[in-house]
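User: Please predict the structure of the protein below. I'd like the answer in structure-token form so I can feed it into my own downstream comparison script.

Assistant: Understood. Taking the following sequence of 274 residues as input:
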Amino acid sequence: MPTTRQSAGEPPRRPGPPVPDAPGPRPLDAATRQKLVHRERIAWHHHAVHQLIHPSRGVLRVSTPLGAWVVPPYRAVWIPAGVPHAHEAHGPTDMRTLSFAPRLGPLGGDRPTVVAVTPLLRELVVALSDTPGPADPPYTAAQRADLERVTLDQLRRVDALPLHLPAPSDDRLRAVARLLHADPADDRSLAQLGAAVGAGERTLSRLFRRELGMTFPQWRTQLRLHHSLMLLAAGQSVTSAATACGYANPSAFIEAFRHAFGVTPGRHASPDRG
């Protein structure tokens, strides 16, 4: 599978549109499985194929020039062909990737998207990316083609989720973002943060809406939830993750987490999700 790797650091510019593959009957270009240790990183790169990236264990932080997505085991991220991206594992992570020919676009659009992973889709991804053991006969070509077709059909039915943490480009917003990335529990108001970076509250509020498509409180909530996923993956307790992310008490954190991810933090961290 063709891959272009770039050095770590600032995201590269997005390349031009990939050259389409020749038409063929099989939707899946490749399926891979890669085990990553805690904090292991994969540097900036891009592919000439679409990718569905699903951590069946652990949490994966996927960065693109448009922002970041934190992907737990019951989610996956769709990366369209040609989009530069980088990965970082949080906790021991089992990263499974399905690659689709550029002519296929079950989710549509040219932006990365986080999707809900149903139990059926999870089993399909695992089946396609696993290497058969000595006692397991490999799938026949017909069986594998059937699995791929069902996977493609499932992807056309998945729900896209608003779990994107957009990255600001305005210098004033970037200064605010750096403060909050460094300490998600920082509870200063936008006016106080603005004073720290030399920008007015109204200006910052307008920039958040115009550039990031969300209000400052919405962006900060998204940042805190993303950070909490990484802390839980590293083995922190629900209580300590709540404190580190600026929640007044564990109950407030549990409610916000459940609203965003559909499960409680305790359920998210349970071993049977690995």
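That's the full token string. Residues 168-273 form a domain with the Arc Repressor Mutant, subunit A fold (CATH 1.10.10.60).
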